[in-house]
Amino acid sequence: MQTIIDETVGIARHLTLNRPRQRNAISLPMVDELLQKLTEAEAASQTRVLVLRGAEHNFCAGGDIGDMLTAQQNASDGDTDAFYHLNRRFGELLERVNSSSLVVIAVLEGAVMGGGFGLACSADIAIADHSCRFALPETRLGLPPAQIAPFVVARVGLSQARRLALGGTTLKAREALDIGLIHQLLDSSTTLEAALQGHLDNINACAPGALATTKYLLLQAAQIADKYALSHLLDDAAKHFSNAIQGSEGREGARAFMEKRAPEWQH
Predict the structure, then answer these.
(1) Entry's SUPFAM superfamilies (predicted)?
(2) Mean per-residue pLDDT for 14-38?
């Protein structure tokens, strides 16, 4: 069975985690496949959005136990870095999704736990239905959510991240919305699909280059520690703005506005 179902529709590359018997737990082959497909999507000029979801009404129940057992065997055989490399490889996926030039939308149903929780937090837009249950169960298994923690803090703040990670707390979808873990809560799978299409329509109205630059600047802004760094960032932002407004997308956007028509990038 494919670990990823891959479909391109218009401006969106849809990647579905496809291990339903394991509630779409993320295995190392799945990580490798996701990274490969993300690279392909970023290289495709027509693609602006990466949609992540899980097969058969679960998003992702975390990491694959089989990989843990393999790492344990490798460690027993003398590979002292087996667990380090296993854990860090998943972190590479979160980093890539978080910093991708594409807009990443997570469509969440059912289990959103451990690594799935981290993947949801690395998305730009997270939408969910009422079936969702969110949890960071790692500490209950004697483990830290090592690669996940920075993305959870970035999404919900340190105070809520402490509560979730240090208590192994399970959240229902309404509370996830209340703390900002997700951005939109829908009543059913039908309204979930309609909401996804609404976001795709909104993104379709945005210029590809402007989207990528804006995401870059937002991520840079989140790392600002003092006003001097902010000044440098805004200098950099002004250069990007100048390049954009004088570039092909900026010119086309101005023409379309004046001519009261959709810009050429809107299909």
Answers:
(1) ClpP/crotonase
(2) 97
Query: Please, what are the domains in the chain?
Result: 4-203 (3.90.226.10), 207-259 (1.10.12)
What number is the average pLDDT over the span 135-149? 91
pLDDT at 203 over 90: yes
pLDDT at 120: 98
C-alpha distances out from residue 132 to 108, 187, 212, 252, Å: 7, 11, 30, 42
Q: How far is CA 108 from the centre of its chain?
A: 11
Write out pLDDT tens, residues 221-249: 988 776 668 778 778 888 887 888 889 99
pLDDT at residue 33 in the model:
96
Residue type, 60: C
* Beta strands 170-172; 133-135: pairing state: antiparallel
- Report the C-alpha gap between 49 and 41 in whole angstroms: 9
C-alpha dihedral (65, 26, 154, 84), degrees to nearest 10: 50
**Cα separation values, 130 from 97, 172, 206, 233, Å:** 25, 8, 30, 39
- Under a CB-based contact definition with an 8 Å cutoff, are residues 52 and 17 in contact? yes
Which structure tokens are listed for 203? 């993104």
Report the distance separating Cα 123 and Cα 99, nearest Å.
9
How confident is the model over 95-132, as pLDDT tens digits?
999 999 999 999 999 999 999 999 999 999 999 999 99
Sheet-wide strand order for 184-186: 4-9, 12-17, 49-54, 103-108, 125-129, 184-186
Amino acid of residue 240: H
Can you give the length of the chain in residues? Answer: 267
Q: Are 85 and 70 in contact (CB under 8 A)?
A: no
